[in-house]
Amino acid sequence: MRIVFLGLLLLISQFAVPALVHSAPLPPAPPIPAAASVNARTYGSISAAISAAHGKTLVISDLQKLSGDLVIPSDVSLSIAKGGAIVNPAKYTVTIAGPFTAGLYKVFEGFRQGDIHFIDGSVKEVSPQWWGENSAASINKAINAFPKVFCPPGLYLIESEVLLNSNTHLRGVRGKTVFQRPRGVRYTGKNIAGVTYADPFMIGFYTYGSGNYSARTNVTVEGITVDGNSYNSTDSGRMAGIYLHSGSHLSVIDCEVKNLGRTADFVLSIGIAFSWVKDGVIKKCQSHDNSGDGINVFAFNQDVVVTENETYRNGVAGIEVEGRLGTSYNLPRNKRIVVARNYTHDNAGVPWGAGGSYGHGILVTWSDDVVVSDNVVSANTIWIGAITVMGSTNIVIRNNSITGNLSASPVDPTGYGIGIFAQYDVYGDNGVNRNINIANNSILNNRNGIFVRDAQDVSIVGNTIEGMATKSDGIIYEKGAVGKKLEVKGNVVKVRPGSSTIGIKGTREDVTITNNTFPD
C-alpha cells in the first residue's frame, strides 16, 4: 500500500510542476526593431531617394526641390521633419500614396491649390498648416488635397471664401478653432444671371443658376467658430457665415457663427444658411450677434433637420424657414423641414423706422410639411409671433415652450406667442395658410396668445396660455378673405381683466370651440 501511495504522489507531482512553471511571470517581449529609413538629403534628388526607400520610411529633413511631377508609392512611408519641406519651383504635382506623417508646420512650399493629392489610406486627415499660415488660402489647398481636413485650435484669418467640395469634412474644435474675417477685407460674392448680386460667405459653396441637389454631396462642417468681426464691407452689405447652396447630404454640426454685420444696421447678414439642399442637418450649433437671421433654411430645401441649436441676439429671426419673401420674385417652396429641440432667445428685430421692428423666434414662410416641435422660444422682440407662419401648408407646431416674448412695434403691438398670418389680398393663394395644427404648447407671459388669419383647416388643441398683458388676447381668429374650418379644443386660457379669451372676427361658420377652460 505504501508503494502505491508513493507512486500516486509521484504521478501527481508530474502534473503539478508544469502548472507552477507556467504561472510564473513571462519575460518581457524583445523590442520590435525600428523600420529602416532613408534620408533624402543623402541622395542627389528626392526621386533618387524614393528609389532607395521601397519598403522603408523616407525622411525629409531639409528643403527638397522638385524637378518634375512626383509620386510617393504606397510602399514608401513619407515623414517630413520640422525644417524640411518639398519645394515646388514650377507647376509640378505631388501624389502621395504611402503613409504620411508631419507635425503642424509648413512642409509644402510653392504649391498651388490642387497641386498635391493624397490617396485614400495615406493619411487620416490633412491640416492647413502643412501649406503655411492659418489662412483661407491654406485651408482651400488642404481641402483640394484630401477630403478630410482638421483645423487645430488657433486663429485663422479668412481673407476670402473657404470653398468646400463634395465629400469634404472640415473639422475643428468649436470655440478654439476660430475663422475670423479681417477688418477691411471685402468678399466679392458672385454675379448670377437674373440676380444682381449673390451674397458672399465665409465657408461654403454656391452653384450658379437655379441650383440642383447633385452639385455637391456628402459635405460636413464640424466644430468651427466663424467670427464676422462685426464689420460690414461687402458690396451688398450682407453675407453669410456658413452657406451651403445646391447639394445633398450636407451637415453643419457643433459650429458657432457670430458677429456678422452690425445688428444696428439693416443688412440681414445670416449666421448659417441652406439653399437647394436635400437631406441636410444643422445640429448643436450656436448662431448669435448677427445682423440678420441666426439660421435660415432658404428656398427649395427638402428633408432638412434643424435641431439642438441655440440662436440669440440676432437682428431678425433666430431660425427662419423661408420659401418665398415679397412680391418681386418667387422661389420654390421648402418641403419636409423639421425644427426641433432648439433654444432661440433674445433675438430683436432690426428697426423698420417708426413702424417698429421685424423679428421672430422661429419664422416659417411659404413652405410645406414643416414640424416645429419641442423648442424653447423666449425673450425675443417680435413682430407678429414668437413662432410665426405665413403662406404655408401642412404645419405642425407642438410641445414648444414660448415664454416672455415682447412686441417690437409701437404702432401695432401684436406680440403673439404663435401667429398664423398671411395676406391673401397681397399674395393671393400663396398668402393662405392651410392645414395648421397647434397642439400642446405652453405660451406664458407673452403680450398675447395665439393669432390666426387667412387660414384653412386649423386645429388649436391642448395649449396652455397665461400670464399675458392687460387688455390682451388669448386666442384670436380672423377669417379674412378665405379662412375656414377652425377647431379650438381643450385649451387652458387664463387672461387678465379686460382681456378676451377666445375671439372670432368674421363669420363663425366651420368654427368649433369645445372643452376649453378659463381659470380665474
Give a verbal description of the structure.
The protein is mostly beta strands. 8% of the residues lie in helices and 44% in strands. It has a 23-stranded parallel β-sheet that branches. Strand 16 and strand 17 form a beta hairpin.
Assembly annotation: single chain
The overall pLDDT average reads: 83
Number of helices: 4
Beta percentage is: 35-45%
Biggest sheet overview:
23 strands, parallel
Q: Outline, from the CA principal axes?
A: elongated
Radius of gyration, CA atoms, in whole angstroms: 32 Å
| Helical fraction | under 10%
Q: How many β-strand runs?
A: 51
Derived from helix and strand composition plus strand pairing, the structural class reads mainly beta
Distance between the termini: 103 Å
Low-confidence stretches: 1-34, 191-197, 352-356
Summarize the structure.
This protein is mainly β. Helices cover 8% and strands 44% of the residues.
Descriptive labels:
520 residues, mainly beta, 23-stranded parallel sheet, 12-stranded parallel sheet, repeat, signal, Beta_helix, PbH1
Layout of secondary structure:
Elements lengths: L1 H21 L14 E3 L6 H6 L5 E4 L2 E3 L4 E3 L4 E4 L4 E3 L6 E3 L3 E3 L5 E2 L6 E3 L17 H10 L2 E3 L3 E4 L4 E2 L5 E3 L5 E4 L9 E3 L2 E4 L2 E5 L11 E6 L2 E7 L8 E14 L2 E5 L9 E14 L2 E3 L6 E4 L3 E6 L2 E3 L4 E6 L11 E7 L2 E3 L4 E2 L5 E2 L1 E6 L1 E7 L2 E3 L2 E2 L2 E6 L2 E6 L2 E3 L2 E2 L8 E5 L3 H4 L5 E7 L2 E3 L3 E6 L1 E7 L2 E3 L6 E6 L5 E6 L2 E2 L6 E6 L5 E4 L6
Parallel strand pairs: 1-2, 2-5, 3-6, 4-7, 5-8, 6-9, 7-10, 11-14, 12-15, 13-18, 14-19, 15-20, 18-21, 19-21, 20-22, 21-23, 22-24, 23-25, 23-26, 24-27, 25-28, 26-29, 27-30, 28-33, 29-34, 30-35, 33-37, 34-38, 35-39, 36-40, 37-41, 38-42, 39-43, 41-44, 42-45, 43-46, 44-47, 45-48, 46-49, 47-50, ...
Antiparallel strand pairs: 16-17, 31-32
